[in-house]
Design goal:
Length: 300
């Protein structure tokens, strides 16, 4: 009888433990980061090395997992105040702080070491990403809206990280990839901030640029979307080194950007959470499709 009970408990506990592990490391977000890194690698590589691609993917997952595990430990008390985060492993009590810190620490070491095997510059940028996310963005979220600006730096690293992994070099090409994803961060996260403003305020987070759902916030969303579009099509000029974009590809990227811009103007017109959600989804679609267009354009 005891054996049957123990087996049943283990059967229920293992999937929960796996789910908690995925949540503490934000596996879904890690996938998007790895996708961006792979896109950057394919753009920079003269010849595709599957070993480097695998190391970059694994190291990228460790990097994101470490950042988010540290974040959830630091914000455990604040997460408990918000509806969308109070069931996370640490604030809910399903995972202890020492366990979460162990995961974060091990992932940090594994991430830096894995990326160092690729090349030292890749490891350096990975370490910078973890440091800025954990030590700057996370503690400043309750102090100033400028936290989003600082958080945009680690958020923009993955796309350029792939190029650095492929070339062991940082120049205008990965710098351009960085700028595209840097400008993209603002409309994306401010759309989330608008949509979840009430929840964020429960924890004291200042996620909107004016700390209010007002016209000035939306104007900044529109402005950064505009700069994102310009940065995304800029390689068509031939001024970004070996990172190039054909005219047809630039037209496609421009149209994708205009689609996102239209959702930003829609938010300006009706100021609803529904419009903010539509903008957020449009931004996710944009960054994914834009990267695909870049990669396809290179190999055509």
């Amino acid at each position: 009888m005891k054996t049957a009970i123990n087996t049943a408990v283990k059967t229920r506990t293992l999937p929960l433990a796996i789910a908690d592990f995925k949540q503490i490391t934000k596996a879904g977000l890690a996938f998007s980061v790895v996708f961006s890194s792979i896109a950057g690698y394919l753009l920079g590589a003269d010849q595709i090395d599957l070993t480097v691609l695998l190391l970059l993917s694994v190291g990228g997952y460790f990097m994101v997992g470490a950042s988010n595990a540290f974040n959830q430990v630091i914000e455990k008390d604040l997460d408990a105040l918000m509806k969308r985060t109070r069931k996370r492993p640490v604030p809910s009590g399903r995972m202890s702080v020492p366990t979460a810190l162990t995961i974060a620490s091990v992932f940090t070491v594994l991430g830096v070491v894995t990326l160092y095997v690729v090349n030292p510059k890749t490891a350096m940028f990975g370490a910078i990403s973890i440091f800025m996310y954990v030590c700057m963005y996370t503690p400043l979220k309750t102090r100033t809206p400028l936290a989003v600006f600082l958080g945009a730096f680690p958020g923009a690293i993955p796309f350029m990280l792939g190029w650095v992994a492929a070339t062991n070099d940082f120049g205008i090409e990965p710098g351009t990839l960085f700028m595209i994803q840097f400008f993209w961060q603002f409309p994306h996260f401010w759309a989330i901030g608008w949509m979840l403003d009430d929840d964020y305020k429960r924890a004291g987070f200042k996620m909107l640029p004016t700390d209010k759902k007002d016209t000035a916030t939306i104007i900044q969303i529109i402005m950064y979307t505009f700069w994102m579009i310009l940065a995304s099509v800029f390689p068509v000029t031939g001024l970004t080194g070996t990172l190039t974009l054909s005219v047809p590809a630039a037209v496609i990227v421009f149209i994708l950007g205009l689609g996102m811009l239209l959702f930003a103007f829609k938010l300006y017109n009706n100021r609803s959470n529904r419009s903010a959600r539509q903008l957020m989804l449009a931004s996710v679609s944009y960054i994914t499709l834009m990267q695909i267009v870049y990669v396809v354009d290179k190999f055509l």
